[in-house]
């Protein structure tokens, strides 16, 4: 048997147990999908100026209140960022996507210049566009006006970009033969992994100013960025260390036989292979970091989820269907980014696998 029937028989009905699981899954889908489809699409309300549009009338059931999401969409994306200056956020997003495609798409040439752009030029441009600069005559926007998806992406991108190289350095330090380097790397990794992220955020936001000179008050968002990056770096270090330990001893011996010193051996031979092995673990850490950005609301940072919660307090949109609609919108945003990272990870794994045809 070949074709679709063969695939169904092999994957879904290859045994009695698989057949039972397949039928149970189909029954669950039939039970759960139609009500969700009716609530979020068929019976939903897409337009309206206030809660009246999303209230049941004459016994009719009303689905999701997407009119509320449309009315608050700007706040969900930008927070209280001045509306006249939101084009700067959009331009920053375009520049970020350009740099990410340049670095992550294998067919794009000049990766060296792409790294220079993404890690040097883009951060400077993003800082000037988002925060402003009195020297350049760009209107300044304090970070306490930032919010929504803007803050979520800023925290997650900075955490991802900083945590990977710092995690690699910590992993190498933990395996180092230098006692002091190894000791401090172990202490940092174990201490950070031994406390929850909320504790790190509180420490960065509340306790850090107590240890700084009087009058020195770092920006609240900057404190959160440092705390999240250091927290993610500790977990990243253990992921990278797993890849380093998986490397056969012959790779080290072969590199030394070629006359390579330690930095050359690590950058040219060991790390490329080790990082390829732990791609799933690295991306898993990135996904966890992206979702953990919702915890920054504990210290007063208005991320995407916090802006949703604040918007739900608006009495003009108080209906029984507003809350599930708002949280469903936030869930879709988180899913899009996390699923995208997951699929890219799987694609890179297949591309870097042995014997792949380029």
Percent of residues in β-strands = under 5%
Helicity, as a percent range: 55-70%
Shape descriptor reads globular
Distance between the termini: 32 Å
CATH fold descriptor of the largest domain? MetI-like fold
Q: Average pLDDT value?
A: 89
Radius of gyration: 25 Å
CATH architecture of the largest domain: Orthogonal Bundle
- Class of the largest domain in CATH? Mainly Alpha
Q: Which class of secondary structure composition applies to the elements? A: mainly alpha
User: In terms of per-residue confidence, which ranges show pLDDT below 50 for 5 or more consecutive residues?
Assistant: 354-358
Assigned CATH superfamily of the largest domain = MetI-like
The domain tally reads 2
The largest β sheet comes out as: none
- Determine the number of helices (DSSP H or I, runs of at least 4 residues): 14
- Record field, number of beta strands: 0
Order of helices and strands: HHHHHHHHHHHHHH
């Amino acid at each position: 048997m070949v074709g679709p029937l063969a695939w169904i028989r092999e994957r879904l009905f290859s045994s009695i147990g698989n057949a039972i699981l397949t039928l149970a899954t189909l029954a669950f889908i039939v039970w759960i999908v139609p009500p969700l489809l009716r609530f979020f699409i068929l019976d939903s309300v897409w337009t309206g100026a206030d809660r009246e549009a999303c209230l049941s009338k004459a016994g009719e059931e009303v689905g999701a209140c997407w009119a509320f999401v449309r009315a608050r969409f700007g706040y969900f994306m930008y927070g209280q960022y001045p509306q006249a200056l939101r084009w700067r956020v959009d331009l920053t997003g375009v520049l970020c996507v350009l740099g990410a495609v340049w670095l992550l798409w294998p067919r794009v040439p000049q990766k060296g210049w792409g790294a220079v752009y993404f890690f040097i030029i883009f951060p400077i441009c993003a800082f000037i566009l988002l925060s402003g600069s009195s020297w350049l005559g760009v209107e300044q926007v304090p970070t306490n006006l930032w919010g929504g998806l803007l803050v979520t992406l800023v925290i997650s991108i900075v955490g991802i970009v900083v945590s990977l190289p710092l995690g690699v350095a910590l992993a190498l330090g933990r395996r180092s033969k230098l006692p002091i380097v190894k000791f401090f790397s172990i202490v940092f990794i174990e201490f950070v992994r031994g406390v929850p992220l909320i504790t790190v955020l509180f420490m960065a936001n509340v306790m850090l100013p107590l240890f700084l000179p009087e009058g020195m008050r770092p920006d609240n968002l900057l404190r959160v960025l440092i705390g999240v990056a250091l927290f993610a770096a500790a977990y990243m270090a253990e992921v990278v260390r797993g890849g380093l330990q998986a490397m056969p001893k012959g790779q080290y011996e072969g590199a030394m036989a070629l006359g390579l010193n330690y930095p050359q051996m690590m950058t040219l031979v060991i790390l490329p292979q080790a990082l390829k092995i732990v791609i799933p673990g690295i991306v898993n850490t990135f996904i966890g970091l992206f979702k953990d950005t919702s915890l920054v609301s504990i210290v007063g940072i208005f991320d995407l989820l916090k802006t949703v919660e604040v918007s739900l307090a608006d009495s003009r949109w108080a209906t029984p269907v507003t809350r599930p609609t708002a949280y469903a919108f936030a869930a879709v945003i988180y899913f899009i980014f996390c699923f995208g990272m997951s699929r890219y990870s799987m694609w890179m794994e297949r591309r870097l696998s042995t014997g792949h045809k380029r």
